[in-house]
Prior knowledge:
The termini are far apart. The radius of gyration is 19 Å and the shape is elongated. It folds into 2 domains: 3-133, Response regulator (Rossmann fold); 148-225, Winged helix-like DNA-binding domain superfamily/Winged helix DNA-binding domain (Arc Repressor Mutant, subunit A). The chain is of the alpha/beta class and 230 residues long. It has helices at 3-6, 19-31, 43-53, 69-79, 94-103, 115-126, 134-147, 161-166, 170-180, 185-192, 196-210, 215-225, and strands at residues 11-15, 35-40, 57-60, 84-89, 107-110, 131-132. Helix 3 (43-53) runs parallel beside helix 4 (69-79).
Amino acid sequence: MTEKQNGNIIKVLIVDDQEIISTGLKLFLEKEDFVVCGEARNGNEALTLARESSPDIILMDINMPLMDGIEATRKILSELPDTRIIMFTTFKNDESIFGSFAAGAHGYCMKDISPTQLKYAIHTVKSGASWLDGKVADRVLRYSDQLKKNTVEKKSLQISGSQNKFQLTEREIDVLKLLVEGCSNKEISARLIVSTETVKTHMQHIFDKLRVADRTQAALKTLKEGILDS
């Protein structure tokens, strides 16, 4: 039974100035039973179509004429806060990544993402969670490393002021470090020699203390707040 038959219809607005990409996305999405409620070629058109169709998800390009995707994201979400936006781009620079999330984007996908992952990303973001492409996560981690170049290396058991602020335990800090590195629960379990259930428990405590909903938000807040900085 398809999603349409189940009544789980997800309306998607495609925003991309390259027609060939937009057309390919439309064909794929409709094949997967998503409803494409419009195609925009720039941020201005995206804002107009979003107002008219109230999409569940917007796949938003960044580099477009008239109004770029970051500015369009900011304006759309100010009017339609329930809409969820995934940046769909080729850009991996700091300005694009952090600018997108600062504007309120809920996900960041590279255009070479696999069809299966794109489908999963849409469902993930629609469910209320965030999505961060693995290539972007690596970029975020390198950006964090740059910020720490001139800091004094922290002793393994030392707890920084930011960590005290969130009242993280030493083990929660260990788990958080591996989360930021992109490790799965299973990988964290193997690295720390604990069960996956223990990792899940630590993860939930971390989410509660940082006041975030998922792994992506935890990683971004960790980097923004300098929680792992010495």
